[in-house]
Design brief:
Chain lengths: ~270, ~425
């Protein structure tokens, strides 16, 4: 619980409950994320990582509870909602882009949508294109791009908005090549170090978390089962590889199941 | 020939040429009729009546075709609104709204009046069609009728063109509200009522004055737009303007656009005046057609049909911001107050329709047009004006806009995006 003198958290989830049919996806989930944090939401497939991100992004409403961004409740008033949209960018795993426009035009258009100065968008777009090695396809229609290139453009679209609060769903999946993974990982690392942006992203891969996040939320059985800083986790499990620590937290039975499968007795 | 046409185009003379061509066509037609009359009158005279009628109808059709064409050309050749090249060109000149437009004035001009008078006067020198049938009024009345018809046709063509560009204002509403009155008096004027004809002309003159003011506003807005130096004009200002509606940005940027519009789609004034206009049109038709109980029953059915269409259209507009019954069933949340407010207006509209329907079938025939008009005013007014406001509702309702639980939002976004102007076109 934040003290009275501390600033309002950047993101606050209050008893958020989402269920599809009889299956609860999130059950009275509460959390608060401070400004400048880089938070990784991890967990096995189908536990509600994407649902949590969609609730934060405002594309899915919780059946109960509410979401506050910078102290403003989502969907409370039109003005509040538009203000939150200005602060937030959500890049889903399945970003839909117009087919006939070029990647450069697309990024320019997204920058314009967030009300940024033309020069800033122009220059930022160019830098992002260089960074993700998209020069050759930047001026071709997006339909001509490969899946990985489209994924790169989608990450660029999130970054070009200059929004202080970035929500990425599975940014490291979807055909991203090693250069792309490295580029985006370094960007997230920079954000975490400088605390210039608040980033929340989901990933099923624990290994990527160590360098990109300063805080981890582990979701299991519709609840946040672990909400800890990376530094604290490392301290608690000193001497143990961090990837292994997360592996054990998220998939406690995975190693034994693999051993069991490969065991000569079962073959 | 092509050089001649180019020079005509350069000097924007085409509308005037079309106008005078129209007169030539008419005069030639009249002369032909006279020649035909002299030939047939010396012979048997059989079939002359049919021949006159055919020629007369052809001439009338020619006038009906030429006058809107003339109005459209006058408008497009003088006003740089619809023509992109003209607009771009004038944007590069020091033109402002207080200066004259380079290719002539788009306002009603004495040359327009001259043209209309000549066409109308043509009827005076037309063959003596009044001799053919007692139903046709004598020549003087014919001239008045023709003059009124030509004038009304020209003003109507002009107002249709202006309404495509004019913003909602008192002037545009005067133009629109004049339509049902014109229809009513035109109907009576056709049957030979001179007072009805005079009122029709008077209303049309009033409409013409409103048009001139609307046109002034269009020119002022154009000048402002050409010289605006704010974000709307420079660099990707256009893109921002189209962004929230254009859906050219794809998923999820369209859905989560920070530039989404808020406020009323239809202002209170426009909603009320629009409903009033529909009421007036209904009154006119009811006054002209509701002569028997059978007609009243037919009108009752038609008005119910219109009410249901209004209600369904409103539902269709609110549907993308509405949790589907499937989701409600799955989540067990049958009532969501924030969303279910959308039922208020349709229910009110149906209630109003029910009351009006009961009145319509139980009142004397003389009151039927008034009740029908009340029905056609109340239902649209409720549909247009009773909340929740669509744009604000979309931003505040507790809606699922993606994922398994929604079966509307995402496909709708995709479809819209496919139909919408591309980002490239917006950038251009």
């Amino acid at each position: 619980m934040a003290s009275e003198s501390s600033p309002a958290p950047e993101i606050e989830l209050r008893d958020v409950t989402v269920h599809f049919g009889t299956r609860p996806i999130l059950d009275r989930v509460s959390a608060s994320i401070e400004a400048g944090s880089s938070v990784a939401v991890i967990g096995p497939n189908g536990v509600g990582k994407t649902t949590l991100l969609k609730v934060l992004a405002g594309v899915l409403s919780a059946q109960e509870g509410n979401v506050l961004i910078r102290g403003v409740e989502r969907r409370s008033t039109p003005e509040a909602e538009l203000q939150i949209r200005q602060w937030t960018t959500f890049i889903p795993d399945d970003l839909w882009t117009p087919k006939v426009v070029s990647g450069r035009e697309y990024l320019m258009a997204v920058g314009a949508l967030y009300g940024l100065p033309y020069r800033r968008v122009l220059e930022h777009t160019e830098r992002l294109i260089q960074l993700f090695q998209l020069n050759e396809v930047a001026d071709k229609p997006l339909t001509d791009c490969s899946t990985g290139q489209k994924k790169k453009f989608s990450l660029c679209a999130g970054l070009v908005t200059d929004a202080p609060l970035l929500l990425f769903d599975e940014p490291f999946s979807g055909g991203l090549d090693p250069a792309g993974i490295m580029a985006f990982r370094e960007i997230l690392r920079s954000f975490a170090e400088t605390r210039s942006h608040t980033v929340v992203f989901t990933t099923p891969v624990p290994e990527l978390v160590e360098v990109t996040a300063d805080r981890i939320l582990v979701i299991s059985d519709s609840h946040i089962v672990l909400d800890e800083s990376v530094a604290e986790l490392k301290k608690q499990h000193a001497g143990q590889p961090f990837g292994e620590v997360l592996q054990n937290l998220v998939f406690p039975n995975a190693a034994s199941q693999v051993r069991s499968y490969l065991s000569p007795d079962n073959s | 020939m092509s050089q001649f046409l180019t020079s005509l185009r350069r000097f924007r003379l085409i509308p005037f040429c079309i106008g005078w061509l129209e007169i030539l066509f008419y005069l030639a037609g009249c002369s032909l009729m006279r020649v035909a009359l002299s030939i047939t009158s010396t012979e048997s005279g059989a079939g002359a009546s049919e021949f006159y009628w055919l020629t007369f109808v052809l001439l009338a059709m020619g006038v009906v075709f030429f006058i809107p064409v003339y109005a459209a050309l006058r408008y497009s050749h003088t006003l740089p609104v619809g023509d992109g090249h003209f607009r771009d060109w004038i944007a590069a000149t020091p033109w402002t709204s207080d200066r004259a437009l380079p290719w002539g004035s788009p306002f009603f001009h004495y040359s327009d009046l001259l043209l209309l008078v000549v066409i109308s006067a043509g009827f005076a020198i037309a063959p003596p069609v009044d001799r053919l049938s007692p139903a046709i009024p004598p020549m003087g009345t014919m001239f008045l009728l023709a003059g009124a018809a030509v004038f009304v046709l020209y003003v109507l063509s002009r107002s249709a063109l202006l309404l495509m560009r004019a913003k909602s204002s008192v002037c545009t509403w005067i133009i629109i509200l004049a339509y049902p009155i014109q229809l009513f008096y035109a109907w009576n004027a056709i049957s030979g009522s001179i007072p009805a004809l005079l009122i029709l002309v008077l209303v049309t003159v009033m409409q013409l004055v409103a048009q001139e003011f609307a046109l002034k506003q269009i020119i002022r807005d154009l000048s402002k737009a050409l010289y605006a130096c704010d974000d709307e004009q420079n660099e990707f200002g256009h893109m921002r303007k189209y962004g929230p509606q254009g859906a050219g940005f794809g998923w999820p940027f369209t859905t989560l656009s920070p530039l989404a519009k808020t406020g009323r789609v239809i202002s209170v004034r426009d909603g009320l005046l629009g409903a009033l206009c529909l009421g007036m049109i209904t009154f006119v038709f009811a006054q002209l057609q509701m002569q028997s109980g059978e007609n009243v029953r037919a009108a009752n059915g038609f008005l119910w049909f219109c009410t249901v269409v209004f209600v369904l259209v409103r539902f269709a507009l609110y549907l993308p911001a509405f949790t589907s019954p499937v989701v409600r069933y799955k989540t067990g949340r049958w009532i969501i107050p924030r969303e279910d407010r959308v039922f208020v207006a349709p229910l009110l509209a149906l209630l109003a329709a029910g009351v009006c329907s009961a009145l319509l079938t139980n009142q004397p025939l003389t009151l039927a047009p008034w009740v029908a008009a009340l029905w056609s005013t109340c239902v649209p007014a409720i549909i247009f004006l009773v909340g929740p406001n669509l744009l604000d509702h979309k931003l505040t309702t507790s809606i699922c806009m993606s994922g398994k639980s929604i079966w509307l939002a995402k496909p709708v976004e995709s479809k819209r995006a496919r139909r919408s102007p591309t980002v490239r076109s917006i950038l251009d």
